[in-house]
């Protein structure tokens, strides 16, 4: 067991070194579909991975809007980047509050008109280490799944029509995978429904999280076949992964010149407040795949799941 852990650590470290090198290679002129007029929005960006994605996108020359639920910390975070010469703006946004979303959309429309990139990073997790309480399940699902969905739906009408397509990037987790080493989902019926991408709908995803929350309330969730660690967080990210596929399918029906491409990625176990700083990779490395996806020159990629700049299975 120790040997396999060491091997996977070696493999991860090697891949992170490769990515660090890739990050130093500038985009060529024909790859750069964006300009300083290109607008990106990053939610939950006052610290950690979100802050780092803002920094990297602004470093590539985009105009980036940093959002945060807490106005004071958001203003301070944006100020740090502005003082570093980055074109970063700030607006308060609470993805759980419909009036906050509405205010944000009005402000975007008045100040910028339209946006090109939306990165959904805002999220919560109340379990650290080996804790696995489901006490805050409603808050976790409401924020990570419904909040993400609400801001996406509000922003789609404000996404620019352009030949390169607009981009939506959802920050999710391998913990939400339906199959694989990290997935401990034992509920075969749920897995089958969420894996059937042709029949998958938003209603099916909603019903899945409702079923989980009902079992939490009834105290039966432990026998429901749900993941046994970080249960509420894992279920919320499983739902976002599934919704990304539904969204990509819906958006792919838009005519040429109005396309929006939606993908999700796992940043890894990052040293941030969310992991109690117990992660094994830096925020800079964790943010990399999200930035890479937002800037992909090959815009026809949609409905996929990535980690460390590579596609992985849902």
UniProtKB/TrEMBL annotation:
The keyword Iron-sulfur does not apply. It comes from Arabidopsis lyrata subsp. lyrata. It holds the Pfam family adh_short. SUPFAM superfamilies: NAD(P)-binding Rossmann-fold domains. This is Short-chain dehydrogenase/reductase. InterPro entries: CBR1-like, NAD(P)-bd_dom_sf, SDR_fam. PANTHER family: (+)-NEOMENTHOL DEHYDROGENASE, SHORT-CHAIN DEHYDROGENASE_REDUCTASE. Belongs to the short-chain dehydrogenases/reductases (SDR) family. GO terms for molecular function: oxidoreductase activity, acting on the CH-OH group of donors, NAD or NADP as acceptor. Keywords: NADP, Oxidoreductase. One of its GO terms (cellular component) is membrane.
